[in-house]
Amino acid sequence: MLVGAKLMAPHGGIFVLLIPNAITPALLYLGAIVAGSLVTGLGYAFIKRDAAQVALAT
Q: Which key words tag this protein in UniProt (predicted)?
């Protein structure tokens, strides 16, 4: 949404990158996937770290 990436295939997925002009702009689309993965991974690690500390405290 921020970069205006458009995905022309309704099913989506990373393999759509193999279809010419199916994703515009392709590099920013990949950057958005990487950014989302990093945010999700860091959030998950933060939540699990707090849960592990609570488990050790009891």
A: Membrane, Transmembrane, Transmembrane helix
